[in-house]
Write a structure and sequence with these properties.
The structure holds two protein chains of two kinds. Chain A is built from nine helices and no strands. Chain A is globular. In chain A, helix 3 (26-35) packs parallel to helix 5 (69-87). In chain A, 74% of the residues lie in helices and 0% in strands. Chain B is of the alpha+beta class. In chain B, the strands form seven sheets. In chain B, strands 1, 2, 5, 8 and 9 form a five-stranded mixed beta sheet that branches. In chain B, strands 17-16-20-21-23 form a five-stranded antiparallel beta sheet. A four-stranded mixed beta sheet of chain B has the order 18-19-15-22, with no helix packed on it. In chain B, helix 12 runs antiparallel to helix 13 (421-427). Chain B is flat and about 145 Å long. The chains are: A mainly alpha, B alpha+beta. Chain A binds chain B through residues 15-16, 18-20, 22-24, 48, 51-52, 55, 114-122, 130, 133-134, 136-138, 140, 159-160, 162-163, 166-167, 169-170, 173-174, and chain B through 4-5, 8-9, 12, 16, 43-44, 46-57, 59-60, 62-64, 66-68, 70.
Chain lengths: 180, 724
C-alpha cells in the first residue's frame, strides 16, 4: 500500500485500516523519544498525537503529501516532543531543522493543544453525553436515531439532551481554558 | 434558555455542515459582525474536535492491537518454521541421587542421610539389563525407556534399573511430591525417578537415555525438570529441558484420507458409504487432468448428450502438449482463462488434491511416517478444502522427515495470511515421527511414481469407460434405426398386401372386374395404381383410405351397389404392466405371416382388426434383462386383459418361433433379438446416467473449490432419483 493510499484511507475515514498500516512507524518515533530523555509512555503518547495530527492534516482539502509518510510522521513527532520538552523546561540541544518546517508544525501543534484541552473537558461529562456526541459528530447519526439508540423518548428529548451535554462540556472547557 | 438552545443548534448545524452555501455565508457574516458568536463558534468547534480526538484515540488503540497481533503472528510463523523440537510432557526426578551429570552440586542423595523421603515410599520397579546391549524397558504405567549400550559409567555388564513413577495427580499427592520450581507452580504431566545401579553403587548416566511417557494429550511447552532435594526434604524442580514428542503412528489404512464431505455426501445421495471398494473406486475415478474451466464444464455442465464433448476435451488435452514437469496444470478458481476458454498453462500452477495423490499415499507402505498419523489425517482434511491442496500435500510429502509444525507453518504461508487453519495446526507444535531417512526417501520415490501411475490409470479408465459407453450407445442407435427401417418395410408390405386383399374383396362385392394394371406383390404398386382409369381409381382410393386408416370401408358405387369391409377395434390391457420397463404388443395377421406393433393409447394397446384376416397376438415386455411374454391365437375385437409371464430366453424363443414358422422376413424371434439389444441399451444408458449423475453430484463434496460456481448452474442439479 502506497503512502497515497494510506492518505486516501484517512480521507475516507477508514481510520482503522490506515492506523494499522501506520503503526510500523512507531519504532522510529520511540527511538527518537527515548534518545531524547523520554520514556516509553512518552513515546506512545507522542506517536498517538502524531497520528491524530496526521489525520487532521490529511482531511484538510488542500493537503498534499510532499514527503514520505515516514518523514512526515517523524517530523510531527519530533516537533511534538520538542514542544513537550520545552514545556518541561528541559534544555535541549536543538538540531538544525529547517525553520519553515518548524513553524508549520508548531502551528498545528498549537491548534491541537486546544483540541486536547477540549477533549479533557469532554472526559468529565456523563457517559451518556460522550456517547451522544460521538453518535452525532462522528457517526453522523440523525437525532431521531440517536434517540432510538440511547433509549430516549423522542427526537426533542435527544436534542435537549445534546444541548445539555454541550453546555456541560462548554462549561468544563471554559474552566480549563481559564486555568491555562 | 430557549435562545441559547437555538443558538447552539445553529452553531452545531454550521459546524457539522448542515447548512447550505447561502446559510453558511449568512452565518459567517453574522459571525464577523458578532464577536461573541464567533467565540462561541470557536468553542463549539474545539469541542467538536475534542470529540473527534476521542474517537481517533479509540481507533488508534484498536489499530495498535491489530498491528501487534499481526506482527506476532508473523513472528510466530517464522519462529515455528525454524524452531527445533517440541516441548514434552513430563518432569524427571532423579530422586535426588544425582544420576544426571548436569545436576547441581547441592543435590543430596537419600542414602547419604538417614532420612527417608515420602517420594521414596513409592513402589520401586526394578529391571536387570545387560549394559552392553541396547535395551528397552517398559514400566507398569507404560513409561518406556530406551537404554543404549554403555549408557552408564560402569564396567559391569549387569545393571540394575530402579524406577519409581507417579503419573497421576493422586499418585503425585500421595507421594508428597511438590510441583514447584523455585517459587513458581508448575503444571505437571507426571513424575518419575530413574536410577541405574551396579554392584550396589549408583551409576552416572553417560549416554542419552530416551524416556517415553504416556500421555493422553500433549501440551505445548512441557519440559523435563530435574528434581533437587531441598533442605526440608521436598523436591524443587530445576534445570528444565525441552522434551521431544514423536507422533504416534497408526496403521495408515485405519485413517480417513477422503475429502471431509465425501462420505457424508454419499450418504446424502443415498449411496452405500460403508463399502470401501465402492467409495474408493468412485473417488479414484474422479481423477481429472483438465484445466479448471474444462473440468467445470465437463463435470458440472454436461448432460448425457454431451458425452462426446467430454471425450473431445480429453483428446485435446494430450499429454504431449504438456511440459514434463507439470503434466496436470489445474487453473484454480478465479484464474483467468483466454477468450477461447482454454486456460493458459502456467508451470507450477496450484491444484486441488487429486484422487491419485491420495491413492498413492493411502497405502501401508506409509506406515511409520507422518502420513500414518492422526495429525496428518486432520491436516489432510484441511488440505482438501483448499484449491491449492495438491501443492500443500506435495509439500508435506516432500518433507516427511521434518517436524509437522514446520510444515504447517509453510502451509500457512502457502495458503495466504487470511487463512488461519494451518496457523492453528502450527500452534499445536506437533513434531515428527521417529527418524527413518531411508524410509522417507523410499516413500517419496514411491509416491512420485505411483501417483503418476494412478493418475494415468484413472484418466485412462475414465476415457475407456466413456469411449466404451459411447461405442455401445452408437451401436444401439444404429440397431435402432435399422430396426425402425425393418418395421417400416414390414408395415409397408403388410399395407400392400392388405390393400390388395381389400381391393379385390371390394371389387368382388361390387361385381366388377378389376384392371390388372396393379402389379401385386411388389412394393411399387402405389405408383402403378395411379395410372389406372378414373372410375376404378375411385374405388381404389376409398379402399386405400380405409386400409390406411384401418377403418371400415362402406362404399356405394354409381349403380347403388355396396362394398363393405369392416374393421373392428380390439384393445388389450396388461395387468402387470407396471412390472416392466417397456412392453410391445404385436398383432400377427395369419394370412400374411407378418406382424405389426399395436399402438398404445392411454393404458391400452389397440389395433383395428380387418374382418377378412385372422390375427394372433404376442406381447413382449422387458424389465432390465428379463423378459415377459404373453401369446394368444385368434384374437377378437373388444376389450381384453392379460398378464405377461416371465420366460427364460430359450422359452421366449420357443414361443415366438411358433408364430413365425412360415414367416418371411423378419421373424418375431428376430424382433426379440432386437428387443434384447434395446433392453441392454436401456440398462446401459440408465447405469451410465446414474454414474454420471453421481459423479456430478459428489464433485462439490470432493472438490469444495468448485462449489460456488456450481450453485448457479441448474443443469448440474440433476435429480438422481429421477434417473432411477
Amino acid at each position: 500500500m502506497s503512502d497515497q493510499d494510506i492518505i486516501g484511507l484517512l480521507k475516507s475515514q477508514q481510520n482503522h485500516k490506515a492506523f494499522v498500516k501506520l503503526y510500523k512507524y512507531e519504532n522510529v518515533v520511540k527511538k527518537h523519544v527515548l534518545s531524547q530523555h523520554g520514556t516509553k509512555q512518552d513515546a506512545q503518547d507522542i506517536f498517538q498525537e502524531a497520528l491524530i495530527i496526521l489525520h487532521r492534516k490529511a482531511n484538510i482539502e488542500a493537503f498534499e503529501l510532499t514527503s514520505s509518510l515516514n518523514t512526515l510522521i517523524f517530523g510531527i513527532s519530533k516537533n511534538l516532543w520538542r514542544d513537550q520538552l520545552r514545556k518541561k523546561k528541559t534544555i535541549l540541544q536543538e538540531n538544525n531543522n529547517t525553520i519553515a518546517d518548524t513553524i508549520e508544525f508548531d502551528l498545528s501543534i498549537e491548534q491541537e493543544k486546544k483540541f486536547r484541552l477540549a477533549e479533557n473537558a469532554l472526559e468529565n461529562i456523563a457517559e451518556q453525553c460522550k456517547k451522544l456526541l460521538e453518535l452525532f459528530y462522528i457517526k453522523k447519526e440523525s437525532m431521531i436515531s440517536i434517540a432510538n439508540l440511547l433509549g430516549m423518548s423522542s427526537e426533542n428529548a435527544a436534542k435537549t439532551q445534546k444541548y445539555k451535554c454541550l453546555e456541560k462540556a462548554r462549561e468544563n472547557y471554559v474552566q480549563l481554558l481559564s486555568n491555562q | 434558555m430557549r435562545n441559547e438552545l437555538e443558538q447552539i443548534e445553529r452553531i452545531v448545524a454550521y459546524l457539522s455542515g448542515q447548512f447550505n452555501n447561502e446559510e453558511n455565508r449568512a452565518f459567517e457574516k453574522e459571525m464577523a459582525d458578532n464577536s461573541a458568536l464567533n467565540t462561541e463558534v470557536n468553542i463549539q468547534r474545539e469541542l467538536m474536535e475534542g470529540v473527534k480526538r476521542r474517537a481517533l484515540k479509540t481507533a488508534i488503540a484498536k489499530a495498535k492491537s491489530t498491528y501487534i497481533r499481526n506482527k506476532l503472528l508473523k513472528v510466530l510463523a517464522i519462529t515455528l518454521a525454524v524452531a527445533g523440537l517440541i516441548a514434552g510432557s513430563i518432569w524427571l526426578t532423579n530422586n535426588g541421587h544425582g544420576t544426571e551429570k548436569n545436576l547441581p552440586a547441592e543435590t543430596h542423595g537419600a542414602e547419604e542421610s538417614s532420612e527417608v523421603f515420602d517420594d521414596e515410599l513409592l513402589p520401586v520397579q526394578t529391571f536387570e539389563i545387560n549394559s552392553e546391549r541396547d535395551t528397552i524397558i517398559e514400566t507398569q504405567n507404560g513409561i518406556v525407556f530406551a537404554i543404549p549400550s554403555a549408557a552408564f559409567n560402569t564396567t559391569s555388564d549387569k545393571v540394575k534399573i530402579e524406577v519409581r513413577e507417579a503419573l497421576t495427580p493422586s499418585d503425585i499427592m500421595k507421594a508428597g511430591l511438590s510441583t514447584t520450581s523455585g517459587n513458581e507452580m508448575l503444571e505437571t504431566g507426571g513424575m518419575f525417578s530413574f536410577d541405574g545401579f551396579a554392584n550396589g553403587a549408583k551409576l552416572e548416566i553417560q549416554k542419552e537415555i530416551i524416556a517415553e511417557i504416556p500421555t493422553k494429550e500433549t501440551k505445548a511447552g512441557m519440559q523435563l525438570f530435574s528434581g533437587v532435594r531441598k533442605e526440608d526434604g521436598s523436591l524443587d524442580w530445576q534445570n528444565p529441558k525441552p522434551l521431544e514428542t514423536y507422533l504416534n503412528t497408526v496403521d495408515v489404512m485405519s485413517l480417513d484420507f477422503y475429502p471431509p464431505n465425501y462420505i457424508s455426501g454419499l450418504k446424502k445421495l443415498g449411496k452405500d458409504a460403508n463399502n470401501k471398494s465402492f467409495t474408493d473406486s468412485l473417488y479414484y475415478s474422479l481423477e481429472f487432468r483438465e484445466k479448471y474451466s474444462a473440468l467445470k464444464d465437463s463435470l458440472v455442465g454436461f448432460s448425457q448428450r454431451e458425452v462426446p464433448q467430454v471425450i473431445i476435451t480429453w483428446e485435446n488435452d494430450k499429454p504431449a502438449k504438456k511440459s514434463p514437469l507439470n503434466k496436470t496444470p489445474i487453473v484454480p478458481v478465479g484464474s483467468k482463462t483466454t477468450s477461447t476458454g482454454a486456460a493458459v498453462q502456467r508451470p507450477g500452477e496450484t491444484n486441488y488434491i487429486r484422487p491419485s495423490q491420495i491413492r498413492a499415499i493411502w497405502n501401508q507402505k506409509f506406515n511409520g511416517s507422518i502420513v500414518a498419523t492422526k495429525e496428518f489425517e486432520e491436516r489432510l482434511k484441511a488440505m482438501h478444502q483448499y484449491c491449492e491442496g495438491g501443492e500443500l500435500l506435495n509439500m508435506y510429502l516432500n518433507n516427511l522427515g521434518k517436524n509437522l509444525f514446520e510444515l504447517d507453518s509453510i502451509a500457512y504461508s502457502m495458503t495466504g495470511k487470511s487463512e488461519k487453519a494451518f496457523l492453528k495446526f502450527a500452534e499445536q507444535k506437533k513434531g515428527k515421527t521417529r527418524p527413518n531417512n531411508d524410509l522417507y526417501k523410499k516413500l517419496q520415490d514411491y509416491y512420485l511414481t505411483n501417483q503418476k501411475i494412478y493418475e494415468d490409470a484413472a484418466i485412462k479408465a475414465r476415457k475407456d469407460y466413456l469411449k466404451k459407453n459411447e461405442a455401445e450407445r452408437l451401436f444401439a442407435q444404429q440397431k435402432k434405426s435399422e430396426h425402425r427401417e425393418i418395421l417400416q418395410k414390414l408395415k409397408d408390405s403388410l399395407y400392400t398386401k392388405e390393400f390388395e386383399l381389400n381391393v379385390n374383396e371390394a371389387y368382388r362385392q361390387l361385381g366388377k372386374k378389376r384392371y390388372s394394371n396393379v402389379v401385386t406383390g411388389t412394393n411399387t404398386w402405389r405408383y402403378t395404381a395411379r395410372l389406372s382409369s378414373g372410375g376404378w381409381k375411385n374405388v381404389d382410393q376409398y379402399v386405400r383410405a380405409s386400409t390406411l386408416n384401418r377403418t371400415t370401408l362402406n362404399y356405394t358405387d354409381e349403380n347403388g351397389k355396396k362394398a363393405v369391409i369392416e374393421y373392428k377395434t380390439a384393445s388389450f390391457t396388461i395387468q402387470n404392466e407396471k412390472e416392466y420397463d417397456r412392453i410391445y404388443v404385436y398383432a400377427i395377421p395369419k394370412t400374411f405371416n407378418s406382424f405389426v406393433r399395436m399402438n398404445r393409447i392411454e393404458n391400452k394397446f389397440t389395433y383395428n382388426l380387418n374382418e377378412l384376416i385372422d390375427y394372433d397376438l404376442v406381447a413382449i415386455g422387458y424389465k432390465g434383462a428379463s423378459f415377459g411374454i404373453f401369446a394368444q391365437n385368434d384374437i377378437q375385437d373388444g376389450n381384453h386383459t392379460f398378464s405377461l409371464e416371465t420366460k427364460s430366453p430359450s422359452e421366449a424363443d420357443k414361443i415366438l418361433t411358433s408364430f413365425s414358422e412360415n414367416s418371411l422376413i423378419p421373424s418375431l424371434t428376430e424382433e426379440l433379438n432386437y428387443l434384447r439389444i434395446e433392453a441392454h441399451e436401456q440398462i446401459r444408458n440408465k447405469n451410465f446416467n446414474l454414474n454420471e449423475a453421481l459423479r456430478r453430484n459428489i464433485i462439490p463434496y470432493v472438490f469444495p473449490c468448485l462449489r460456488e460456481d456450481r450453485v448457479t448452474n441448474t443443469r448440474a442439479s440433476i435429480d438422481i432419483e429421477s434417473l432411477k
